[in-house]
Design brief:
By secondary structure, the chain is of the alpha+beta class. It is built from five helices and seven strands; from the N terminus they run E-H-E-E-E-H-E-H-H-H-E-E.
Length: 186
């Protein structure tokens, strides 16, 4: 459906360090300015501010779209944190436009779901590898002879607080034995 849609939008960036946040917002605005699918009427960029070690900034944009699909495309591409449709006061959507929107939304949700599943699988592999590596390093350290938790902590560069549950696990699984506060191989 052809109609002019006038919107105010806000895009936000958060992260660290401050220079990265500023550079990322600059690149985002440059990309928006070059996009020929819609018209950028005006922009206002806020200065990055710090909150608990994280920097954030935002830009307010005034945009014009020729149709609803362009507006939806903008939302999917730039992920604004807020959209206010100023004009027209009433939007009429064709069934096809709504179907296109729903199908695009489902496609993006499926892609996001697949990404999350892949990242979770990678995290599990990393955790498993880390577990085996830590166990191997502990075994190498204990081949030199029995060691206290403090000695192992210093040798491995792992804090006692983080090393304690690992050592408890190895003792419970009878990989390592604990005798008079000294760990040794079985």
């Amino acid at each position: 459906m052809n109609m002019s849609i006038h919107v105010n939008a806000m895009v936000e960036i958060a992260g660290a360090p401050k220079q990265f946040v500023n550079d990322t917002m600059k690149k985002l605005l440059e990309h928006i300015e070059k996009n020929e699918v819609f018209t950028l009427i005006s922009k206002h960029r806020a200065r990055a501010k710090e909150h608990e070690g994280i920097f954030s900034t935002f830009s307010e944009l005034e945009l014009e779209f020729k149709n609803f699909n362009q507006l939806i495309g903008f939302c999917f591409e730039y992920l604004p944190s807020n959209i206010e449709i100023e004009e027209p006061a009433k939007l009429e959507l064709r069934r096809e436009d709504m179907s296109d929107l729903m199908n695009e939304l489902m496609l993006r949700l499926h892609k996001s779901d697949m990404t999350v599943k892949n990242v979770n699988a990678q995290i599990k592999l990393i955790e498993k590898s880390n577990h085996h590596l830590t166990k191997s390093i502990i075994s190498l350290g204990l081949k030199q002879g029995p060691k206290s938790l403090e000695e192992l902590s210093e040798l491995l560069g792992i804090s006692k607080a983080k090393l304690t549950p690992i050592m408890d696990f190895l003792v419970n699984n009878k990989t390592v034995k604990l005798n008079k506060e000294k760990y040794s191989l079985k």
